[in-house]
Each structure stands twice: as C-alpha cells, then as structure tokens.
Design a protein that fits this description.
Layout (H helix, E strand, L loop, with lengths): L1 H17 L2 H26 L4 E2 L8 H14 L4 E2 L5 E3 L2 H13 L22 H21 L4 E9 L14 E8 L9 H14 L8 E5 L12 H35 L4 E11 L3 E9 L1 E4 L11 E3 L2 E15 L15 H4 L5 E14 L1 E9 L2 E11 L2 E4 L17 E4 L3 H15 L8 E5 L6 H73 L8 H19 L1 H14 L1
Parallel strand pairs: 5-6, 14-17
Antiparallel strand pairs: 1-3, 2-3, 4-5, 7-14, 8-13, 9-10, 11-12, 15-16
Helix pairs in contact: 4-5, 5-6, 7-9, 11-12
Length: about 575
Amino acid sequence: MNEWLKKTLDRVKTLWGSWGIVQKLILIGVVVAAIAGIVVLVSVSGAPTQVRLIRTPIQNDDELRLITSRLDEEGIAFDLGEGNVLYVKDEATRARANAILLREDLIPKGTDPWAVFSIDRFTVTDFERNINLRRAIIQEVTKHIESIADVDKANVVIEIPEDTLFSEDQKPVTASVILYPKPGSDITTNRAKLEGVQKIIRFAVSGLTDENIVITDQNGLQLNDFAGMADFDRVERTKREQQLVQKQEAYYRAAVLKALQQIYTPDRVRDLNIKIDMDMSQKSVSTEEHFPFVIKPDNPVTPYDDAVIEPSVRLSTEKTTYEYQGTGFNPEGPAGVEGQTAPAYKDLQNMVGKATQTHSIENEALNKRQSVEERSPGIDRVTVSVNIDGVWKWKYNDKGDPAIRPDGGIEREYVQVDPAELEAAAALVRDAIGYDRMRGDSVTVRNIQFDRSAQFKSEDEAFLRRQQTDKIILYSLIGVAFLLVAFIVFRLASREFERRRRIAEEKRALEQQMLRENAIRQAEEQNIEVSMSVEERKRLDLQEHAINMAKEHPEDVAQLIRTWLREE
C-alpha cells in the first residue's frame, strides 16, 4: 500500500514538473472550486429549514397584505414562497407570529388552527389523537393568554377525562393556570381582566365550568376566587360611594364659600361644614296617575282661567227597570187540600200592591298615566353650617389717634353681624344647595367670634413699630432743624462780628489817616517839608479822586455804596 502511494506521488510530481504554468493554474482553480462547492453544500445542508407560518396558502391578496404588514410592525422576519405560503425561521417565531395573528383576528378563513393534526399516519391511535387534541388545546390557550399585554408567561394544564357510560360516573373537565404578570401590571387585582382570562379558558374547552378553573399567580395565590372577593367588592363599592358623596360635598362647599367670601371676604368666612346623606340603593319606581281630561286648554292671553276640564268621560250606561202591580201571591196546597197559609197573611190576599225596581250602571273612563323610572343614587338630606365673623373696629381718642390700652395694645370694639344679614346669607346658602324642606334639609348660619389674638398681637407690634419710627423721624427732623438754625445764627453772628471788626478797623484807619493828613496839612502851612511814602501818596490821590467823583456824580457814588452795603 505504501509503495502504491509512493508511486502515485512520484507520478504526480513527474506530471506537475512536466506541466506548464497554464496547466498548473487550471488545476489549482479546479481544486479551489471543488473545495468551495463542498463548503457551500455543507453550510446549506447544516442550516435550519424554515417552517410554514400558515400551512394553507393565502388566497386573498388583502389578507396577505394585512398579515405581512402586521409581521413587519412586530419585526418578525418571514419569506413568501410559491402559492402565497409564508415561512419563518423556527417554531418559536411561528408560535409568536400565530399568537399575534390570532389576537388581531388575521388568520385567513378556512385555516385549520390545529396544526398538529395535519400529520396523518396510518399507525395513529385514538389515544394519540386525544393526546394531540389536548396538547393542541393547551398550546392555543397558552398562546391566547400570553398574547395579553399584562401577562409575561402562562402555564396551562387542562385535564379532559375519558367519557363514561353513566353521567354520574363522569369526571368533570378541569383546568389550572399559573400567570406570571409583567412588572407594573394589575391583572392580579383587576377582576375584569381575571374574568376575561377565565372566559378564554372556558370557551376554549367544551364542558369546562367556572368552578373547575383555578387561576393562580407565581406565588400560589388563587386569583379567581370571586366568591371570596365579595367582601372586597363591597368595600370597593362603599369606597366609590363615599368618593361620590365627597365629590358632591366639595362641589357644594366650593359654591357656597365662593358666594359668601365674595360678600364678607375670606377672612370672615372660614368655617363651612356640609354633610350630604345619599341613598345609593338602586330602585325601580312604578307610578300610576289619574288626572282629568282637558277639553279646552287655558288661553294665556285672558287674565282668568277659561280652561274646560272634565273629570271623566262616560263610556257606557246600562239601566234596568222592573215594575209589578196586582194582588199578593198566596200559595195553596194540592187540589182539594186547604192551604197552609197563616191567618195573618190570609187577610192580605185580596189587597192590591205595586212594586218598582230600577238598576243603573254607568262606566266612566279616567285619564291616567303609568311611568316606570330607575332611581340611583339620590340625595336624602343636606345639612350646612356656616360661621360668619363680625368686624373689629379701632377706637380713637379726641385727637383722632388710635386709643391705646394700658398694656400697650390698640383698643378695639367688636361689631356683630346683623341678624337680617345672617338670614339673607342663609337664604343664599339654601338657594345654592337646592334646599328642600320636605327632604329634611337644614341650613344654619351663625355669628361666632373668631380668636384673633395672634392677628391683634402682630397688628399691635406693627403699629407700635410704626409709632416708634415716626417719633424717631420727628426727633431727627427737629435735631436737623435745630442744627440748621444754629448754623444760620452762627453764620449771621460771624458775619456781624466780621462787619463790626472791619468797620472798627476802617474807622481806626480813617482816624489815623485824618490825623496824618492834619499833620501834613499843618506842616505844609508851616512850610515844613514832610516826606510821604508811595502808598500814602497813592491813597491820598485816590481819596481826592473819590471826593471829586462824589461831587461830580453823587447818584452813581450813592448806588455804588448801596450795592456794597447789600453785598456785605
């Protein structure tokens, strides 16, 4: 064997060496193509085969369009084969798609829902058929339940016993379901949803009754024990009735408070209590009324009532009259036998009498009306109590300022609400709630003083702070005015002292100047040469010039002096 393999390899090497490049490339291409074909064949044969979504072809194009659109919305991949047959990748996808199509009622008409029975074998027994039937029912019921949005998973067990000869020996059909609700779902406490699941199971299995269905959650608590939920339903019904009463009370309270607070301000109307007694029982009332016929209705133009009314209408009359006149009847015995009439009646046998009998029947028809109405719920009684506070007024002294008590607070006076206003407010409340005296309604409006100690304390503190602030401002203004007056007086005094000092200096300088001038004049008269400074010479010239100016223009000099004095 090894020699044959060795010879074969040597022959291949010899052939490979004798071939050209083109022949070698062709051989390599053939080998690569063969390997690729084998790989593709293996991958295709190893891939899972698709399964039919609906075993029967879909004949209606509209049904096919609806089904494919729904599958696209759910993100389910499918293929459309020949004859409008839909294929999906596996059984799990088929089960999910079938549940969606069953829920949306998109299964084409004529499609067999029991796919398990599509396989027909010669060796299938009745026992296997029954098992397949129960399995198909369980699968479809499970799909129906899991298609509910509140259910994450469902575990269904249905027991269908064999038929027996006698009905008393027949065991009932039973079903048990375990529900795994989705997070946030209320299916475990919602009775309507549980009844829906129970109906799905009961209608899917023939012969199954409600008492033989047990629905539990993942913790083993029975959910469809509706008989045990009677107390819970009663509590829920009572709760809803109380909510209805509270809603009606809140409506009346808001209406009455709004009306009174707009008149007396919200601070004076705080307390309003309302209690409504309602009859929640459902009643059917049948009423029969009898009333007269209106022959002619009342004319609204006339100031009086000119209606023509008849209490009844005669339907028929029956009258019977019987008259008799003659002697009385005296019975006798058989022929030849004397009668047995008493002597007292024998004396009356020859008397002639007359009898008249009249019988009359009149049938009258009355106008009547029959009505049947349902009453639920109804208000039995309404009671309202309202408290309106009075008004507090400040007392003032003779100066018009608020009177202050010895303890420092403001003195106040309480003014009660007038009884006429209380009666008017009660009438307003009665109209707002639809007051009915025959129903036993009650409306009470009182004037009860509120405790306003905290309010008065805050008002007194604010008033005292305001008074203290006013005093501080007043004293500050007085101080500022005093300082201003003192500054003005000091300023005036300073100016006066300065003026007097300047006048004194001028007077003293003038006196010195006059003394000097006199000395100079005397020296000149005596021909004594006197030396004068430049400033003295300028002052002397200025003085002579001013004197000359005053002589020549006295008005201008006077105006100049007045201006100078005004500026000083």
